[in-house]
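1st attempt posting a full record on here, be nice pls
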Amino acid sequence: MSTFGIGINAEAIDSGEIKGKMYHIACKAWFTASCNLRPLSFKFEGDDGEIQTVREITVKHSENKIYSGIPSKEYGCEAIIGGIRHEFKLIFYMEACKWVMILPK
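the predicted structure (as tokens):
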């Protein structure tokens, strides 16, 4: 334990609320030989009701997060959606085995 408390309670810091527009997605992912998870492509229902498929995802970064006490893996990504390049987040909720896409507002 440090004199000034540095490093105390740093294990399970909550990442707060998710900001942006959330879409529930069906994600095709790959687990590497070292058990790392990597999203490959996904499908989601757009605002117009059409099912869109997103391929060739560029993962810029990933990190473990905790949202409202729920452990998750967050990926900062970039891909072409509807003919336009978008930056977005993909979040994998480990316990529920569920994926969501977050587009910035």
